[in-house]
Fold this sequence. Notes:
Elements: H1 2-13, H2 17-30, H3 35-47, H4 51-64, H5 69-81, H6 85-98, H7 103-115, H8 119-132, H9 137-162, H10 164-167, H11 176-186, H12 191-205, H13 209-222, H14 227-240
Helix pairs in contact: 1-2, 1-3, 2-3, 3-4, 3-5, 4-5, 5-6, 6-7, 7-8, 7-9, 8-9, 12-13, 13-14
Amino acid sequence: MELYLKIAKNLIASGEYKKAIETLDMALESDPSHELVLEYKGFALINLEEYEEVLSVYDTILKINPINERALEYKALALTKLGGYIDALEICEQLLKIRPNDEIYLNKKACLLSMVNRNQESITLCDEILKIYPENTDAQATKNSVLNHIKKLQELTEYANENREVFFPASIQKTNNQKNNDFTEFKKLGSNDIALYWKAIKLGNDNKYQEALEIFNKILVTNPDNTEVKNCRDIVLKKLGKKELF
């Protein structure tokens, strides 16, 4: 086992991740639950951006050892890469129970809070981090990013309210109350989802309804109750002659 690990470690260091995985798989044939071998395999998979497989490997580790910090940390990373911000945030909370004031975990939590649009909580946590670690540039950067996002969102909402015809084609008749409700829902979206939302709107306006539908469905994975996104998706479904899928 030591020889397999040594070879895999050297292969990973030289960037030969696929060969490292092959070596680690040979080791796992004799001991499928070897934590360190699984950790190395998960790390190699991360470098190959095979995030679904990463989750499988680290889930195996966590069944063996539920408080394996490295497995928790890299599982959260894989979830983040796949857009699973809420699940990644829950794992971050677990890590902070193990190490309550860990600077890295606190930074990750602040960042993830902003990704799920819990902006004020993110800012508050950044301020708390900066009290403990005054030189923490990551916390300051996250705070600045969230404040900038809030400012841009306010500007965008004001512009959209003044130019509704740009975002709501004449064929879609809505009352002022309905439009105000739409923008209330719109403001609940996180920064990543807002960017996707406008991309989908543009695709819809360009008659690229299938592409728009795929993006609206993606947004609804993390925002299942957002009525504005649902309304837009329903419009696209009607254009495609499809029924609501969920």
